[in-house]
Q: What sequence folds into this?
């Protein structure tokens, strides 16, 4: 079906993204996978190309365009290229809204220009060794010392954790914490007591640095409180819809791309003297995946339009996230199977997509959490 989502301007931007990928990402990607981290120069190159801070006001060096469709184009093209390691979506779509909507004027002038040039790489630190989706269980705490906070605690599974120059930390600022006692504190590279642990060894997305972070009596200036004191829970809930949409967009793009390469493969690969595509079972598999992708794409495109218009609610964002990522997981498994032994070889795109995409149903809120949000909205 012809997509009606994008204008000529969006397609021009898509061409720019593809050029960037071909020049600045794909020639270096295998090395980044081996190194377990993306070169900082790639982030600066993204800044020069105008791929960072798309929604940031022009006065701070951004693109000045809040249209989420540009972010969707970025997610689609990076997914199709098999290059999730340079986490522009995390930077733009997840961290960006915290800075643009919550930061004071002084904070914006301090942080946003570097955010847009790629000189300041960002992360958000919510997950702890004993607290994942349950924000009530966060133990990292900040004690008020007058003109500064003293931050103590540990975080894990933090994307961009090694590269990050600016980390938004979710911490208890009251003894009880929870929905009414969490705040967002911005920790900057070089603050005494801020230490990075291991660059964690994941099964996929090898080049995307994911780390443990430790805070031992870190002095965080009062000027680095982001948003309202004890208001983090509301701030987090407000921004989760966009995070989940970004993940969902990558999910459907991955499923569609896997279907494309698998369709080509079964046309070329022969078994028992004829192409796999001539076998009824193979045709049924392709037909089922194509239909599932088409139906999902239609729903996702509608959600993108609603989100761009400020009309997408948390329930539909949750529906999009769980459905698209579970489809991605299912399609990756079936496409690997159709590739046979070659699908298990790391040099085949389907193998990398299988491992890179597995995290999609987990981060940003697990499938189970998404279903709980949807069910609660319907049943109370």
A:
């Amino acid at each position: 079906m012809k997509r009606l989502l994008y204008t000529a301007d969006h397609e021009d931007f898509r061409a720019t993204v593809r050029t960037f990928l071909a020049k600045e990402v794909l020639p270096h990607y295998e090395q980044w996978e081996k190194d377990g981290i993306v070169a900082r120069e790639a982030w600066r190159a993204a800044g020069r190309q105008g791929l960072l801070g798309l929604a940031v006001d022009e006065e701070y060096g951004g693109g000045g365009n809040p249209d989420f469709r540009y972010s969707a184009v970025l997610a689609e093209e990076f997914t199709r290229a098999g290059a999730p390691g340079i986490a522009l979506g995390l930077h733009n779509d997840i961290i960006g809204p915290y800075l643009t909507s919550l930061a004071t004027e002084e904070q914006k002038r301090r942080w946003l220009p570097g955010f847009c040039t790629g000189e300041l790489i960002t992360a958000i630190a919510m997950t702890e060794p004993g607290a994942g989706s349950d924000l009530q269980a966060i133990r990292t705490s900040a004690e008020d010392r007058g003109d500064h906070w003293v931050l103590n605690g540990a975080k894990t599974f933090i994307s961009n954790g090694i590269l990050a120059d600016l980390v938004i930390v979710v911490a208890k600022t009251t003894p009880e914490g929870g929905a009414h006692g969490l705040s967002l504190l911005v920790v900057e590279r070089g603050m005494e007591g801020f230490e990075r642990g291991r660059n964690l060894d994941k099964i996929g997305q090898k080049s995307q640095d994911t780390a443990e972070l430790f805070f031992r009596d870190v002095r965080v200036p009062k000027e680095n409180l982001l948003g309202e004191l004890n208001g983090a829970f509301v701030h987090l809930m407000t921004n989760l819809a966009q995070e989940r949409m970004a993940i969902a967009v990558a999910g459907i793009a991955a499923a569609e791309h896997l279907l494309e390469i698998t369709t080509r493969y079964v046309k070329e690969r022969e078994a028992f003297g004829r192409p796999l595509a001539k076998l009824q079972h193979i045709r049924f598999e392709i037909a089922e995946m194509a239909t599932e992708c088409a139906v999902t794409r239609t729903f996702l495109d509608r959600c993108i339009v609603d989100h761009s218009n400020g009309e997408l609610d948390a329930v539909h964002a949750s529906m999009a996230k769980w459905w698209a990522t579970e489809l991605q997981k299912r399609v990756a498994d079936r496409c690997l199977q159709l590739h046979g032994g070659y699908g298990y070889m790391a040099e085949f795109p389907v193998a990398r997509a299988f491992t890179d995409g597995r995290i999609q149903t987990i981060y940003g809120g697990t499938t189970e959490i998404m279903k709980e949000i949807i069910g609660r909205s319907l049943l109370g």
About this structure: The beta strands are 122-125, 141-144, 148-159, 166-172, 182-188, 194-199, 210-221, 225-226, 270-271, 274-275. DSSP finds eleven helices and ten strands in the chain. The longest helix spans residues 232-268.
